[in-house]
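#data-curation
PF: Archiving a pair of folding outputs for the training set. Convention for this channel: one message per protein, sequence first, structure tokens after, nothing in between. First:
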Amino acid sequence: MPYLTAPADACRTASGEQLGFGVPGYAHPLLAPAEWAELTRPGTPLHWAVLNIANGPGARPDPHCLEAAGRLRNARERALRGEAPDDAVRASGGRLLGHLDLAHGERPFDELIADARSFIDWYRVGGFYLARCPGERSGLPAVRRLTGTLHALLAASDSADDGGRLVLGHGFQPYPGYAEAADQLVTFQGPWTDYRWSQVAEWTADYPPERFAHFVHGVPRTHLEEAMRVARWQGAGTIFFTDRDDRDGQSDPFATLPRYWDEIVSRIGPGISE
């Protein structure tokens, strides 16, 4: 299989190392209460979850999203103070990231910064997920400017410990220079039929697994172990796999829990990632 023919240095996430979840963005807490509750369930190795109200922070604070954000933030704070040492979800990170849509580089810088300030002021996010991030070399200077400003905003706020986290949501393997512009890159987002035959870019071998995330939909339960093996061989430290797809009557297969959520949680197991 192609993922097994990647350079040896790229096979970085050995079976004994810890994978964790990155949640691209559940539906609104009123529509997906079980999904949001799972984010603070003990035993869930959550790295981060994205809050997206209306392709961004929305026009005003949403009380239901404020409550969901507060639960996740409080859980993380308790872990950082050492009050919940046995709670794996809190120990493994559990950051809340605000959703910023870059529209492949078409959105004005000022609009993005205004959305970022709203996320920080209203929801006290611990970082940002930069959706539809451009991946070509020509787009890199603008992305660097944006991520530098976002890091400065997070550092000046009281919502983000250790400077916060920025994730570039390319969904594909971008120009290598983007690896120096943020904390993590989403280098695959798509269906299992493509993922199982995918190949990792050789330049990713220069970075540890915590720098990469993979989101895969349409993964059958019977292929779950194989999907996890692909992620480990390709050096992804953060994943979200689901058996949902756009044929389930929804446009976003990542908006709800996979039917095998309990099984994948047990397969990954608890762990401390940060």
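PF: Second:
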Amino acid sequence: MKTKTATVALAAIVATGTAVAAVPASAATTKAAPARCHTADLKAGFATGDDAKPDMGRAGKQTQAFIWFTNKSNHACTLSGFAGVDMVGAQRTDGTWSLARSSKRPTKITLGRGDTTDFSINLLPVAGSTPQKKKFVPATFQVTPPNETKHFTLKWPFGGQILKQDGATHPGTYLNPIGQ
């Protein structure tokens, strides 16, 4: 049953020849979710502040290094999961070491223009006197954002050596998800 008000409003629309499309209120306020961040949207680097530097002199005790991503694009984008991290060694016997992932659960991070997030890498340093075959000397890190194929090459700025466990099931050197 039509009410008198609805009939008058409908008659006014028909009389003026204006077509009106009904849009649900929820659709009018919904924004499209930001797309995921691509390598081209980001810049990356090691956090080098005093509180962010790993203590590479703590032989046999874990320390952490942090890598950051900043959104340099003109739009918001999201990151979720783990970056890909390959350490390239300075010694000819080092080769490349693809870091294992922690068991932590990733969360989704939205980066607005200019926003930064980071992730940590747990490291297990060794003493300089450790035999060469048991130590890995980092030179560069190839860092690939989650779900991407292009990487950043970052020079390792901290010195030191890491216990070589590139074939271990539970190595002391591994990475955590974005935002952790």
